[in-house]
Amino acid sequence: MSKDRYIDGKVLIFDLDGTILDTLKDLYEACNYALDAHGFPTRTMDEVRRFVGNGLARLVELAAPEGTDEVVRAQVLASLKEFYGIHCNDNTGPYPGIMDLLKELKKQGFRMAVVSNKINSAVGELCKLHFDGIFNFYMGEMDGIKRKPAPDMVWKALEHFGVSKEQAIYIGDSEVDLLTAANSELPCITVTWGFRDRELLLEKGASILVNSPEEILKL
Asked: Most Cβ neighbours (<10 Å): which of 7, 30, 33, 101?
């Protein structure tokens, strides 16, 4: 879509996992499949919830036993990616109220993007499955682009829309998102229904917290 067809309005940049899409069970099952396949102890749902947010390589680094050889970690990661590539949508879906929020924001003329540390192919697949026609831009982890909390993905989104940082707002659920917004010099709306506890978010500097999608509309 060409820029001149956009309705005037702010750009909203959303994180994916834990913000608009509940992906935890599928990540949990993929993680434990990979660990078990290599003879390692599995992890609890709460542990995986705390480990996610920095990409699958970091998830493996945290989930595998301390001191695991780098070569073995790479093998676990390959198993996780293969399993998750097949099963990334088995139990995944938008959080309650998210679809109504996104449709209303689009109706009001907001331009919207997704930036995620999930592998780019999975981001594209899930956005098409669950949010077809909603987002004007999405980007996941790919070679040559630094992962969040580096601002590179956000800059790519701003470049796509042809806007400055003063015209954009970031929305996420974790300390990674808070840092991403800060590094991008964007205000950050932090949701409380995602992968991190409210107390941790406050400790990490969250200043605009919302407890439901409806509250985003009010802001």
From this structure: 30
